[in-house]
Amino acid sequence: MRRAVTLVATLIGIASLIGPSTQALADPPPPPSESTARTELASLTVGTPHSMDGYSRDAFDVWADQPDGCTTRQDVLARDGKNVVEGGDGCQPTSGSWYSAYDDTTVTVVSQATIDHIVPLADAWRTGADQWTAAQRKAFGNDLTDAQLIIASSSSNSSKSDKDPSEWKPSNTAYWCTYGEEYVSVKYKFKLFVTSDEKAALGDLLDAC
């Protein structure tokens, strides 16, 4: 109920109540257009990665509680899944299906539907987030506004780890264009720099558009 009241009122502007069995209440944030992504990519600063000293996932406070009382992870699972059924708390999905664009597979076990940060937390740390405030890192780690959080199968998430596009690309080549657009948009919004190899790889991804 908490999710229904908060998300429907905020994202759709209609005050209504729904039961615990629900599909996603909103679509994932769309990536920018190819032309916008190319403009943003051209403006990104090229730099040398910072030290990983002091890094931890906890520095980004994942998965924090959202205004609806659910965690960021629970909100993404509800938002991006199909035929999602939530438990009595109105937050934790108990069943559903989730599409993993990285490897063009569908996950039907909740625990195997992992949430990936398009720009990895470790990559963000070494390209500028090490100098952010705790509040800025929390906003990045729990960003539902931008194309930053995505459903990923456990295997594709593990394969990607904290690699940037110069080190890893989705096995699903049909997703390369969108992946490049999303990655660039996050780097641009949060004013993170890129390495020269990373910038070249992002250009290659956009060439797939």
What does this structure look like?
This protein has eight helices and five strands; from the N terminus they run αααββββααβααα. The protein is an alpha+beta fold. It has one domain. The strands form two sheets. Strands 1-2-3 form a three-stranded antiparallel β-sheet. Strands 4-5 form a two-stranded antiparallel sheet. It starts with a helix and ends with a helix. The model is unreliable at 4-25 (pLDDT under 50). This is GmrSD restriction endonucleases C-terminal domain-containing protein. Residues 1-26 form the signal peptide. Pfam families: GmrSD_C.
Helix/strand order? HHHEEEEHHEHHH
- How much of the polypeptide forms β-strand, as a percent range? 5-15%
| Gross morphology | globular
CA-based gyration radius: 17 Å
Quickly give the structural class: alpha+beta
Whole-number mean pLDDT: 89
Signal peptide: 1-26
InterPro entries: GmrSD_C
Keywords: Signal
Protein name: GmrSD restriction endonucleases C-terminal domain-containing protein
